[in-house]
Amino acid sequence: MDDMDPDDLPELCDKCGTVITEDDELYALVPDSSALHEDDPRLDGKRVLTACSIDHLGDLVEEYRRRPYLDEEQWAGKVCRVLEEQDGEVSLETLALATGLSEQQVDRGVAWHNARARAWQERYGDGCADDREEHA
Ligand SMILES: [Zn+2]
Predict the structure, then answer these.
(1) Confidence (pTM)
(2) What value, to the nearest 5°, has the Cα angle with vertex 58 and ends 53 and 61?
(3) Helix (H) or strand (E) holding 61
(4) What is the pLDDT of residues 17-63, one digit of tens each?
(5) Alpha carbon of 9 to ligand 1 centroid (Å)
(6) What is the distance between the alpha carbons of residues 20 and 4, in angstroms, rounded to a whole number?
(7) pLDDT tens for residues 59-109?
(8) Other CB atoms closer than 10 Å to residue 81's CB: what's the count?
(9) 58: CA distance to ligand 1 center in Å?
(10) How far is the CA of 130 from the centre of ligand 1 (A)?
(11) Beta-bridge partner residues of 46
């Protein structure tokens, strides 16, 4: 995506999908533990909402305010991102260093992830257990 100029892409309202002209763009930054920034870990856990009107922006902010912010979900996301770039076994220490988390946080994140993967399997069986929820 780096070779694309973001200015060329029309912004869509996260609520209704309407293409937004520059004059009507409204933004809000909300905490979201499932959000991971593509390349800047400091921006993890925050989601930029785009809306066509103040009403829709209000609806979206309200939606995210109701969604619980789980530290474990955020830690699990950071661990998964590191693991995707690694081959083979990775030690807890390496994971902690690479994610910027403490070893306890890595541990709890992994436990959270595993518990969810198990719950998914029990419910849907061995299928495409895609645990990456998109809240777009
Ligand atoms: Zn809208």
Answers:
(1) 0.73
(2) 125
(3) helix 54-66
(4) 999 988 889 999 999 999 998 888 888 999 999 999 999 999 999 99
(5) 17
(6) 19
(7) 999 999 999 999 999 999 999 999 988 888 889 999 999 999 999 999 999
(8) 16
(9) 10
(10) 28
(11) 31
